[in-house]
Amino acid sequence: MAVLPDPAASRAVLIGTSRYAHLEQIPAVANNLSALAAALCAPGSWGLAPEHCTVIEDPSTAVEVLEAVRTAAEEATDTLLVYFAGHGLVEPRRGELFLGLTGSIQHRSYTGLPYGTLRDVVLDGRAGRQVMLLDCCFSGRVLGFMSAASAEAVIDQVEIEGTYLLASVPDTSFALAPPGETHTAFTGELLRLLREGVPGGPELLDLDTVYAQVYAALRAKGRPLPQKRDRNTAGGLALARNAAWAPPGFGPAPPPYDHEPTPPPPPYDHEPTPPTPPPAVPPMPTWSPMALPSPAPLPSPGGASRGRRRAVTYGLAGALFVALVAAGVPLAMSWMNDSSKDDSGRDTGRDTSKSSGKPKPGPTSGYNAAAKGSVVNASAKPGGTLKFISQNDADYWDPQRTYFGYVWNFSRFYARQLVTYAPKPGKDGTELVPDLAEKKAKVTDGGKTYTYTLRNGITWEDGSPITSYDIKYGIERVWAQDDIPGGPIFLQEALDPGLTYKGPYKGTSDLKAIGTPDDRTIVFKLPKPNGDFERMLATPSGSPVKKGKDTKGKYTDRPFSSGPYKFDSYQPGKSLELIRNTKWKRSSDPIRTALPDRITVAVNDDQQARDKALFHGDYDLDLQFSGLNTDAIAKARSSSDLSARLDNPYTQLLLFAALPRSVKPLDNVHCRKAVLYAADRENMRTASGGVLSGDIAPHMLPPAITGSDSSYDPYETLKNDGTNATKAKEELKACGKPDGFTITIAVRNNRPSDVAVVQSLQSSLGKVGIETKVAQIDASQYATTMGSPATVKKKGYGIVVYRWGADFPTGQSFLQPLADSRFIQSTANTNVAELDDPTIDHLFDTAIAEQDTEKAGSDYAQINRRISDSAAYLPILFQKSVLWRGSRLTNVYTSDPWQGGYDYVSLGVSE
């Protein structure tokens, strides 16, 4: 019989490393820690007292961890639970497991925490039972030498009384943190189990039940399976109460649960059998609930850091949700009881002088009103608390390190730049305007020198002036990738492509490309012209940092403010509160209205709780550009009052498919054109979620980017309702395949909407004789696999489904990684179609060097046409999202540079 450990006599130590100086970052680990601590301490779960649950996040030394574990081991007389999430590494000669710390280096065990030492500390304690949960990986693929047998040897090292090892199987290394998900794969299923319980299961969830349920859930998703080691009766020890348990005779009989996991299938030696073909025509409901998870950043030429695309509304932090539900569809949503509102008082340090950012009058409400180029509920009234809620914390609040789009938007509350985007709706928001600078740059030397003069009266939160040296130092931090990795490096590439500068933390030299003749003058000297340089400076990477306040890796916890708000309190993974920066002068800032007295962010990974809180008005909007799940949007759309608070803007993302020319017969342009003509774009949009999911894309350049032409429809996609079978058959004859051919479509396995789109494409191609196989690729391996042209050719992936977004809204940021032949790499390739056109390359050089936006746009329009002529890509949708707009919000409008999200710095609230 299962026994629940005595909470008063038990202890838990939760250890997690999400930030690494030399290894891949795992932001989801930070979410694991806070959520698991909350789950274990919940009265209905284990009921552990918060003071008996120690959380150690991003430890830098083994001693820091071991001392905490030793203390807990000496205090616990019943059960000691130790959890670790992060990189699991192996010492190459002895095969010993060691756990990754922030400074760990591959194959150097002395930089990590040896598991054997941790095990000894656990066993030396007084607890009668010890439970070890390891959510880490010791993959043979990463380590380069481990066979399955050697993996077993490592597992055996972990085995102690009451210990379970739960980790990825030895042949994968990236599946622990699925892109777009809040938690790592194993811990996410564990948390779901603790929250939802097991219908029909026992009153207490013993470790054997936990293992079986997590195993089954991971297997159902096609993810690597956990491994278990236990001794004696440890499996009967309960981890928590079963949230779904009901006394006998209470309610309807629950479905049976599986106590033992089904054994995995035997390994295969050849390619997997293609999936069963879908029906000839995929389901096409007029309204179908569908989520659109966004992609993980792709690597780009020159290595992983260069290719990181901004996690626009996603990354590991979030997703774009597009839900299409007809009125009258029954809802199965359980709305929680009302919770109290936050009634904290106002800060009295408000500057009441007039703001130059006064919004234009517009509607006060209405469906999609904020996405139509006007300002909803315009007001200049100051005061109140602007309340955000978010599924995830930031990747980093440090402006030089963040790559999440919603953080780029939010960071403007406390971080300013020389120039920024105009506080205007829609495409007008892409206009660059001065911020810290008096004017936009004076550009000389043929576009290679940019000179700025700073405004008078710009100050830090301590009242000291912001100088040109502060701006230079902030930008120099971009070079410190070994110490503070995470953010984009395009400023580094534009100013110092040879990486001659080593960063502000190494040596005494400074960055020669930036001159500071005096406190108010800053000069940038580029090795070659780049017309988008000011747009690079408008990103958070261009923010000033005061050298004396730079705490390196800890700066993310408390950035020093140059904007109208400053950090007051921050609890990672839980909450953030900004208050007024009383040293900020409204007269020095033409951009920010700074209406609210306070700004708060609450982190809550419970989707239903967030939905309820937004509907109830406890929070004003979702930080991550979405806010409601499919059921909640269905509820909103069925209510005239609630639907008036929804907006459906473009996200500036493109859903498309690459057609790699290395895969025969797609090396023939006519065969590629046959695919483009045969693809039923209208059907694909329906499969993706319908009209709210986006507009059919006739070409590759999203509407917000200069050079995009709404009338350009080279394959008559819009004219023919998305397909032209007659033209497709003509192209098949021209390519010598009149009866069609067979090709494989690659798609991520964690996006139901993308799989539905592929099934629709499969159906329409089949109508003209193009037979297709669908390869659903593990999402954690997708970018790596498709970024290898050799692998794409070997596997025959002739159609590769992708999403793409720009770091800044120009053709350089959006098109160049996809279409410039110089971006074709043997690994981390972004030009998946392998488009190799010298004319396109030359046009990119011309457009990038051009200072005139319209002239550059003309070049990008030509590039777009040549891409269409090459049939290298199949554009599918200019995507849209569904946003929730709280009833208290004032000055609400969507703006293109923020990926269609609301322009945060203009928002106010009405009490």
TrEMBL record:
Query: Solute-binding protein family domain: from which residue to which, for each copy?
Result: 431-821
Coiled-coil spans in chain: none
Question: What domain of life does the native source organism fall in?
Answer: Bacteria
What Pfam families does the record point to?
Peptidase_C14, SBP_bac_5
Q: Where is this region: Disordered?
A: 248-308, 338-370, 538-558
Q: Where does the record place Basic and acidic residues bias?
A: 339-353, 547-557
Q: Where is the composition biased (Pro residues)?
A: 249-300
User: Which Gene3D superfamilies does the record associate with it?
Assistant: 3.40.50.1460, Dipeptide-binding Protein, Domain 3 (3.10.105.10), Periplasmic binding protein-like II (3.40.190.10)
Q: Where are the transmembrane segments?
A: 314-336
Residue span, Peptidase C14 caspase domain? 11-218
Write the record's keywords in alphabetical order, separated by commas: Membrane, Transmembrane, Transmembrane helix
What name does this protein carry?
Answer: Caspase family protein
Q: Which organism is it from?
A: Streptomyces endocoffeicus
Cite the source lineage: Bacteria, Bacillati, Actinomycetota, Actinomycetes, Kitasatosporales
